[in-house]
Amino acid sequence: MTTSTAKLQETYNLQGFLSPLHVLNETEVREARRAFSELEDEFGEEYTQYSLHNVHLQYPWVMSLTKHPRVLQVVTSVLGPDVILLDSRFICKYPTLTSSDTRENEEGETKPAAGENGLPYVAWHQDMRYWGIAGGPVVSVWLALDDSLKENGALQVIPGSHGAGMLPHRQATRCGNMLTVNQEIPEALVQTEEAVFCPLLAGQMSIHDGLLVHASDANTSQKRRCGFVIRYVPTCAYPIQDPDRPRKFHATMLASGTDQFNHFSNKSS
After folding, report:
1. What pTM value is reported for the model?
2. Which residues, including other chains, have CB under 8 Å from residue 218's CB and lie 6 or more apart?
3. Tens digit of each residue's pLDDT (9 = 90 or more) over 141-170
4. At 4, which helix (H) or strand (E)?
5. β-bridge partners, 31
C-alpha cells in the first residue's frame, strides 16, 4: 500500500467521506456534458432529472465513467482491490423546479411528487436506510457534471457520523423533502453545528460511506446541478431480504479485481 493510498483510507475511515477529488479533465467534462445534453434532448428534463437509472448498461460513455481509473483508484483505496459496481444514476436539480417537487422512493429513485410551495431539498439521512446490503460497506460516489455549489444545493455532511451506526428516521416536519416516505433523521440526533459543505467543480467527485449522515439544500440558483451517482461494494458484500429496504440489484458488474464470492448472481464481468 502506497503512502497516498494509506492516507486516503485513513482519512475516509475517520471522516466517512473524501471531497473534493479530481477525476475528469476539461476534455472529458466537455464530452460527458455533450453526451448528457443529447439525452436531455431525447428524453426531456422531466425524465433526465431522475430516471436515467443504471444506463451504464446502455451507453459506453457512461460505463467508462463507472470504470474511470481515477474513480477506481480512490474506491479501491477504500474498499480494497475487489469491487462490484452496484448501481448508478444521474440526478439533476434543475433551476426551474419550484412547487413541482421530486421525491425519492424506497429504491433511492427520485421522481416527481406532489408538494407544497417549498423548493425540493434532501433532509438529513443515511443512504444505508434504503439499501439491503450486508457483509461490507457501500460507497457512494457523486461525480459532478456541473459545478455543485452551496447555492444550487451542494452536498453537506456530518464528518465522522458514520461511526454511530444506523440512526432512527421519521416523517419529516418540513415540506419539500425529496426522500422516500418523507423521512428524516430527527435534528436532535444530528450535530448540525458540525456540518461541512462539499462543493465540487465539474469533473470533481466526492465519495461517502453509506452510514454517513448527509443532506442537501434546495437549488435556489439559476444553475443546473447535475451529477452521476455510482455505488460500489466490496465483493464480500451481499444482498439481504429486508422488507424495509427492498432494493433489487439488476445491473451489478465487477468493476475491479476478482470475485470469489459471487453473491450477485446477475453480475457481468
Report:
1. 0.87
2. 93, 118, 119, 120, 121, 153, 176
3. 999 999 999 999 999 999 999 999 999 988
4. helix 3-15
5. none
